[in-house]
Structures
1.
Amino acid sequence: MRGNVIVGQSGGPTAVINSSLVGVFKTAKDRGAAKVYGMLHGIQGLLEERYVDLSEHIRNDLDIELLKRTPSAYLGSCRYKLPGIHEQGAQAVYDKIFNILRKLEVEYFFYIGGNDSMDTIKKLYDYSLLIGSDIKFMGVPKTIDNDLAVTDHTPGYGSAAKYIGSITKEVIRDGRVYGQKQVTILEIMGRNAGWLTGAAALARGEDCEGPDMIFLPELPFDVDKFMERVDAIQKTKESVVIAVSEGIKLPDGRYVCELTDNVDSIDTFGHRQLSGTARYLANRVARELGCKTRAIEFSSLQRCASHIVSRVDITEAFQAGGAAVKAAFEGESGKMITLKRVSSDPYQCTTDIYDVHKIANIEKTVPREWITDDGTYVTPEFINYVRPLIQAELTAIMVDGLPRHLYYDNKQE
Amino acid sequence: MRGNVIVGQSGGPTAVINSSLVGVFKTAKDRGAAKVYGMLHGIQGLLEERYVDLSEHIRNDLDIELLKRTPSAYLGSCRYKLPGIHEQGAQAVYDKIFNILRKLEVEYFFYIGGNDSMDTIKKLYDYSLLIGSDIKFMGVPKTIDNDLAVTDHTPGYGSAAKYIGSITKEVIRDGRVYGQKQVTILEIMGRNAGWLTGAAALARGEDCEGPDMIFLPELPFDVDKFMERVDAIQKTKESVVIAVSEGIKLPDGRYVCELTDNVDSIDTFGHRQLSGTARYLANRVARELGCKTRAIEFSSLQRCASHIVSRVDITEAFQAGGAAVKAAFEGESGKMITLKRVSSDPYQCTTDIYDVHKIANIEKTVPREWITDDGTYVTPEFINYVRPLIQAELTAIMVDGLPRHLYYDNKQE
């Protein structure tokens, strides 16, 4: 019999983050963990001693299948930044966490999240060294943004890319319906990394011309040049569809969406809420080029559209959770599971483990050479990279016409 | 051998309008039509003699299955209003149409559309009586808005409702993730009729609490009262999700979205493009109640999300097309196919035919008694009406990770 396990979810949700949770839970139980606790709202909830015994909630194989298909973080998430371990007052925070873990007889700690969340694993691991604790700390990668270092890609990205590719295709079909001039601007998530926006290019194929231009946040965005390009394209083509990242910035460093008057807010990690980019550009096109425009924000659905997930992605999310448990049980700590692509064609991928210090807080952006020279599209290399990640589906379990989810009622707490 | 058939699509697209097109095409071929022409961009394209021989494009059973699953109008659509048959200059327009039909040896004319499009069938039929033409004119109902008179519901509505119910559920899950106060406003299509917005209530069930409030365009919208209600709910609940119709109006008759500064335009039928309602309300909530807000426009996806359609809907869309052919071949003209609900539980539905004069240009809104007394939700009767229409799925044909469509390349023209 192993000791107890605790697992938490952190940062923005994805359509498959619960598949990683299930991967941790099931592998831990299968490998003899006594108890598997779930932190409610990540480390922030743990500090308030909010946790559950997951066996009381994931009771059978059907629950496991439902949870894999449930969007958003089942346990709730947080955006909570632990203090540096040597900062003033830090000791009280860490002592509190380690005391709670000790009380729960936790020997293995898993945290499913992105680069901000890996900062938590790094600090907890460092503190464990400082105090000589034997608890093992492992990170499980997750983010639709695909901006984690070292790993080939992140669980969550493939499903978001599949959703973006699918609905871009549908919107392109829709845009051609009236046979009149129309410019559609799609606003896609991704603050600093263009992985999601680039996925709009997946729509291009035998049965779809794909978007006409794609603008990633990796390159400065020149509004005047953009207007010229749109003008040139709309002279040759009725329906123009353009994908832009919510995070595109002017050459002076301001976000394009700052040119609008939307209320915005800043989260705990100092990230701005961005939106309004597509609307702003669509209004400019309507005013200056005098054509009909549409602005479509793909919105939160990019991270929660469980009704169309990639089976490759959801399987890898599960595997990443399982691999973290295996590694921790074998004595690893302070590491994150990475996905290692063995081959693109045929697609083969395994897991590996890597020092979390070299991953936390680092953002991996799209390489310059995967963006065309003129900065208006992604290259075939980009597509070849993404395509294997969106393959196959995991059919939703439909009940009375809608996808069924595993419901965690936080009123129970 | 029958004479020739022509079919057109008109008005806003739906996820299943091509299923009706296939229903007309296949039934006409099966029943011996010599040729089945498709108008490109409806009556507007026909006036420019733009049409295709559909047999050259729908070549086999796989094409039929792909076309059923292809969003937007395969033949292209239009928003074109024919002049009244006695208006000045009308004769030239009608003579042109009837000459083209005569040249093509068309004996049966089918038009798939909503109440504006039924106006076209009505006028063409009336003109056929005037000139003693034998051509049969039949309407096939279509609109996501579900606002056609006489018919129990319209093909296109069930799939849009299923999409809205599904993503509302996903967004509700997503909204609970951080466990902090947040108000999400969903903006749903429907200018004057709340059928689509009401479908957000489908999300409520054993595994989801559903939206907190739903505002239909049938009732005047009081912004101050709305703010009070939101304030009251957000005091008792972390994540508040509210669905509003894009068409909600102030008591003075202005659209709520007119309080914003969005560029808008007016289409041929005098309908305004509406958007910005959710953003406006979210900004007000953020400013006045000081909580985090999100505005999510469900956007065009409501009418083109073929990746999650209702099988009931897509089957009925096909049947409506087939029934129109059968009726016309039996000599009917100036009629529209209606859907007639025989029973809700178990759900049974047949088709019927009805005088198009009593359907064209009439909008059917949600009955007052299907909206709660305080105007903030729909009643169980509403849900019982919609639920059967969203049942079961028609699996997309996935190729290389994305739904496959039947591509009509208008460069071929």
2.
Amino acid sequence: MEERTEIATLGEFGLIDHLTRNFEIQNASTILGVGDDAAVLDHFGKQIVVTTDLLVEGIHFDLMYTPLKHLGYKAVMVNLSDVYAMNASPTQITMSIAISNRFSLEALNEFYEGVYLACEKHGVDLVGGDTSSSNKGFIISVTAIGEVVPEKLVKRSTAQKGDLICVSGDLGGAFLGLTLMEREKKIYLENPQLQPDLENEAYIVGRLLKPEARKEIIAFFDENNILPTSMMDVSDGISSEVLHLCRQSNLGCVIYEDKIPVADDSRKAAFKFGLDPTVCALNGGEDYELIFTLKQEDHDKITLNEEISVIGYMTGIEEGCKLYTKGGNRFDITAQGWNAFAKQG
Amino acid sequence: MEERTEIATLGEFGLIDHLTRNFEIQNASTILGVGDDAAVLDHFGKQIVVTTDLLVEGIHFDLMYTPLKHLGYKAVMVNLSDVYAMNASPTQITMSIAISNRFSLEALNEFYEGVYLACEKHGVDLVGGDTSSSNKGFIISVTAIGEVVPEKLVKRSTAQKGDLICVSGDLGGAFLGLTLMEREKKIYLENPQLQPDLENEAYIVGRLLKPEARKEIIAFFDENNILPTSMMDVSDGISSEVLHLCRQSNLGCVIYEDKIPVADDSRKAAFKFGLDPTVCALNGGEDYELIFTLKQEDHDKITLNEEISVIGYMTGIEEGCKLYTKGGNRFDITAQGWNAFAKQG
């Protein structure tokens, strides 16, 4: 009988590892392949970063509560976020879409309005793409290209023991926005007469529907002569991301629960939904903030920036990856989604 | 009432024009945006070309008769073909896929075997990508990157009046392979006991399932100091492609039916299916050959290459785009698929 291994047994990162492990680099211009936020190519002295994302309706977004303009904007932002996560500046994108005939030209115009707005805001050119049909649903593929001088490129694998772990902005908001939207969708489907109750929830809804790639953090690094020792963007929640930094840098870490930045509006929403704000911040995802490590002696350079929080530090690999809670407990950080994590608490 | 324009009223190219017409280039490094086989970026002196394709199961391929290894191979090839069409050399690709749980890890391994084989053959590195779920079907997004010295870049818009129109290889085979496979699929669905009859059809089946991007044609240009005046790859059939070259170069053309290269095996298959081989060659698509224009004085440089056929020449825009048939008739070249075209004959 033919062998059949379910893909779910590997997980996304296991799968990528599995599929790419035997592939040897052939071009001298390929500096960094699979395994970071973006690939790095050296074309004639300066380095080029390339990153790509595929977004599928029903998996990555729900058009029931995602306006098309926001979708176009977000599809660009999530890719620019990966470019900034290499400490690089985005310069071009390509955008391919496949759509079923349920979408009109007016709908597409709306989507592209969001695309163009995102491009304009970040000084990026849309240089190519492809438009085709799909039998069902909306499929979006974006590739972003950026540039960086080789000395400034920041990878995931280069953190050092003792480095501070920092994050930009605040966390958990996008997940709480998603929770709200899913709740309102359910209510609407049960009773279409009821209008959605989004009052006072503008912050978390905005975090979900209109994420902003952190261009100004990269600019701040540049202006203040700061070079993170490692960095990535926060798309799957910081517990997942910090495990990536540790694994790829061959280190452990300590994260302090009370240092994790959560906005007041997110905290209020979490309590309303009966969720732990820390768990939302750790495992929520889609915040598109930056998580990075910094030499301790650079600490003074960031203290005046209110957008940056120090949440912990890197340790030796033998010490594992630990969360110190407000109550004085220590837990292993896992990346299995907040349900699994909540069970440990 | 809300306005609703059906996308079908614009067609793919009309749609891309519509969506991108108001977008101004912001980066000095963007040399060429939407509208050619690939975008061109000038990063520090040498030029980089970028091209992307989105392939959707049920629209672009049918897994009933496309082995996964061939699919992986072809997904790469169609992108490399766009890079060669700029007279550039491919260096890297990214590959993103979304798959439903009906695919096992073994199935994915097969797909990636084809991807790696294509990369190896063309000296290209797989540098990134993304793997995610889909609710239904297999979705593939490939971005290919290549490089070229600025003096050698060949666009679509730079043909001159009097230039020769040339194509590589032979045409119509992939369309005939598709016709065969669709016929066998129908027979199989009606009576699953019947085995497919692909005997003697290896050539056209190969043209469909295992296209080869024309690396050696680009190498031949380089070795023989040939610089086409314009070029693109043949993915939609040469009547569509030649209209692109004419429109973008602001010219007309004459194509001679009896000069269009069709392989003997394709011709036989066409007669068997009751199709006109010329119509298959003109409007078939998926051949992934190169169509290019050449200064007349360069004619001697290509005569010894049996892989290159001269099929016509560029004229002034006022002369339109004409096909001269074997029977001495003259028709306007249209790109509405072979059915529409056949009606004119």
